[in-house]
Amino acid sequence: MSAPPSSDEAGLGGRTDAGARGESLRGLAAVDEVLREPAVAALTESYPRDVVVEAVRTVIERLRREILEGGREGDAAALSPAHLAPWVEKLVAAAVSPSLRPVINATGIVAHTNLGRALLPPEALAAVVASAGSYADLEIDLATGERATRQRHVRDVLCTLTGAADALAVNNNAAAVLLALAATCRDGEVIVSRGELVEIGDGFRIPDILAESGARLVEVGTTNRTYLRDVEQAWTDRTRAVLRVHASNYRIVGFTAQPAIEELVSLAHERGALVIDDLGSGALADLPLFVDEPSARESLRRGVDIVTFSGDKLLGGPQAGLALGTSAAIARLRTHPLARAVRIDKLNLAALDALLRLYLDPLRVVERVPTLALLTQSRETLGERAARLRQAIGAGEVVASVARAGAGALPVAELPSVAVALAPGAGGADELAGRLRRGSPAVLGYLRDDRLLLDVLTVRDHEIVDLAGAVLAALAPA
Q: Is residue 416 classed as helix, strand or coil in its secondary structure?
């Protein structure tokens, strides 16, 4: 349940002595008293009684604890059943409402990690609904009636799109890397350039993933320069693979050097080892914006044994990790015990399957996959959308903005965009931003020069009316 009121919120006063604390505790309403309060009693007719009782107890216990710990007191009215009833109502409403809420993203960050990253295309949404609402041939071959692998639903299309000999999907890219290392390098050594020891989302680091796989990390080179000779000098009879990690969430520029992938492949294969290439963002579309992103097809063509990347970043699909490569290498991943622990679930698999099939039509994929469509909008389109939003609000100023791909992808790419800048009023920009976050629908923008900006690159046309309504409600006097 959501947090019950603090003593200040509940109307309790300042610090006092032990005698006054005892008086406050004696005056605090009992559970039965609050349950008899008409507003609370009415809740038990609409919601499970146990939920209402738990809400009452939570509110009372929070106040009792603060009286004891903070030495706070309140008058009899502040501790009465009538005073506590509204807090009980709020807790019950929070308990029975879904926690995950839709948000209008006006930050200009397309694959916003905190907002769920990629928006799914209609085809993927339909596939999720169809699979969620019925049984499906997830792990059965309908032609033979025999058990089959769930991977068959995406294996062929992944191989077609990338030229891989085999492929499988797991629940995210960190899991794909972990599985690849555990299945092929456990108890051995893995060579990684020092400049590629990245930290991915939520504090997870490549060295940590390596350690969990059972392989030993061998760092080579320096932060900005690594040569093939560094890899050669670090090689031992325990070396199992060279891991290349694409710096998808940062760039090292200037005086830099890295071995070509062909050099790593030649060296590793001469010595009976593998090359694993973690591409990170998974850009399959042929867009000018992706020109500096590594290509899965190119890595595989150049002899890489295992390529991994995310499904929910630049690919524009559900959360997933994709591992593609040679038949021998992927077979080791497929049969490893960890594969079951990190396998992709039915709903994400359905969405991924539908998404990947859109890529079979490269001429239309950009307009059909929302992430790609958002990233490739024209300045004219954005300007018209911002003007409509500004007109609907009746306030603010249309200004130039800079949007980003998000999710750590394309870290130095700045997307020219347009935003509506709102003067915050007497409460300040932070207060306005907070009101928009807590509104319905919830809205996220960003602050610049003490103004709240609503970047329209990530606002879809059908959201303009709801966004304008949310802004007007937030700007209205309390």
A: strand
| CA neighbor of 93 nearest in space, from 149, 43, 131 | 43
Residue 431 — φ and ψ, nearest 5°? -65, -40
My answer on whether 333 and 360 are in the same domain is yes
User: Rounded to an integer, what distance in angstroms lies between the CA atom of residue 275 and that of residue 301?
Assistant: 13
How many C-alpha atoms does 373 have within 13 Å on its Cβ side? 16
CATH code for the domain of 128: 3.40.640.10
C-alpha–C-alpha distance, residues 214 and 55, integer Å: 46
pTM: 0.86
The verdict on residue 395 lying in a domain is yes
Residue 344 lies in a domain: yes
| Residue in the block written with tokens 């350690």 | 211
Same domain, yes or no: 29 and 146: no
CB atoms within 10 A of CB 434: 13
The structure tokens listed for 152 are 């068959």
- DSSP H or E stretch at residue 453: strand 451-455
Cα separation, 187 vs 211, whole angstroms: 10
Instruction: Report the alpha-carbon distance of residue 119 to residue 379 in Å, rounded.
Output: 21
Q: For residue 24, what are the domain limits?
A: 18-96
Residues 306 and 182 grouped into a single domain: yes
Compute how many other C-beta atoms are within 10 angstroms of the C-beta atom of residue 158: 24
Tell whether the torsion through CA atoms of 330, 359, 411 and 318 is positive or negative: negative
Distance in angstroms (rounded) separating the CA atoms of residues 475 and 478: 9
Summarised one tens digit per residue, pLDDT across range 99-144 is: 889 999 999 999 999 999 999 999 999 999 999 999 999 999 999 9
Does residue 72 or residue 151 have the better pLDDT? 151
Distance CA 353, CA 273 (A): 32
Number of domains in the chain: 3
Residue bearing tokens 């100023």: 397
Among all chains, which residue has been given the structure tokens 């629908």? 441
170 phi and psi, to 5 degrees? -125, -170
**Cα 174 to Cα 181: distance, rounded to the nearest angstrom:** 11
Instruction: Note whether 355 and 118 are within 8 A (CB).
Output: no
